Batch of 2 targets.
Target 1
Amino acid sequence: MSPFTVLPLSGSLRKASLNTAMLKMAADCAPPALRTNPHRDLGDLPLFNPDLEVNEPPSVARLRNDIDMADAVIIASPEYAHGVSGVMKNALDWMVASGVFVDKPVVLWNASPRASIALAALRETLVVMSASLVNEAALEMLIQPSDGVEAPANPDPVAMRHALLALERALRFRHHSPGASVSLRPIPSPQHPRP
Ligand SMILES: Cc1cc2nc3c(=O)[nH]c(=O)nc-3n(C[C@H](O)[C@H](O)[C@H](O)COP(=O)(O)O)c2cc1C
């Protein structure tokens, strides 16, 4: 069976983004059965305006196509003033009408466990878009900037590998049982100290 394609989406445009760094790390931690596409930059999308949906902007069409082609999407997005980043919300708003997220396996990752309000709001938005959240592959990992910001401190490859294996398991289940929910019973995950 060919590998499952996973699309990482970051809600941060910062060059030194911890959420983007977390998503990039997935390429090294993924089991062979998961092929992670390069992280997708959402900065090329125009601000959402339903009037523009009649002639879909090319950047919006590209994102919709990327999501459509992916077996699963992993989202990592920062919290700004207790809200979902505008970058991520803008991208999701563009996707609503297409229905591309309907039944799409989506995993929520978070580079800052204290940012729980935005995470809950993001979850709510995806639920209302009928995405299929793969909770057993969710991951909260305190990642902190280091001096050479390109390599953030505290990454935990074991926990990430564990999450990606859970995603692979859910996708295999879905593949063998079309129409079934991807949600499986939670599997034990390693313990992580909270800040
Ligand atoms: C304007 C602003 C508002 C922020 N508000 C919050 C917040 O409400 N809660 C929180 O946990 N972090 C908040 N932060 C911290 C960011 O979420 C944090 O810097 C995060 O690492 C940014 O994501 P990134 O590293 O992927 O770019 C805020 C940062 C900025 C610049």
Target 2
Amino acid sequence: MPPKHRYYSVPTKKKVVAFTFDDGPRPWTNQVLDALKERNLRGTFYVIGKDALRYPKILKRMVAEGHEIGNHTMTHAWLFRNPPNEVPHRVVEQEIRLAHEAILQTTGVAPKTIRPPGGLLTEEQSRWVYEAFGYVDVHWSVNPGDATPGRAKPSTAVFRRRVLSQVGPGKIILSHDLWKSTVAAIPSTLDALLAEGYEFVTVSELLAIDDPYEAVQWTAEETKALQ
Ligand SMILES: [Zn+2]
């Protein structure tokens, strides 16, 4: 089987989630880091390369406190647009490479995964990114709708409720620390997930527990039906 290069969630029965934060860093990303630190939790930050260069201290803090940093391109560029406005391959390559270098130079740690802005990446591009950069292409399975174009930003209560109504074992939670409204919603959302018994892992830790056999473990009834 070819290596799996795109994920929305990981099949598991373990109550683990990966909380991801996109489009930063911004000065208020420190508040997200404070909230995670107070609860001894780790997350994954899909940073924009040019903002990583603007706020190197925040990136260094992320690494020092055990968080993972992923690639969200250099300028938050769309990597795919429908014909006739396709994105030239050299632009895709440059956007990813420059962000990779910005993160590596700032923190000394190379990112291992990419979240394409807007989730826009074709199957073919995703495969190429895996081959060229070794990146797994990470989407999401919980979306609080805090960056949906044309929609009002959710209040803290709405953000938390949307996360809790979609969450499940092995899911990847999308959020955007670009927005102060999201940052405000993080502490109580973390507490609610902890109260439900969820453990927090980084994206790479979540992908590492992907067990292809777990997804096809049959129930006793299913096994009986086969006999
Ligand atoms: Zn984004």
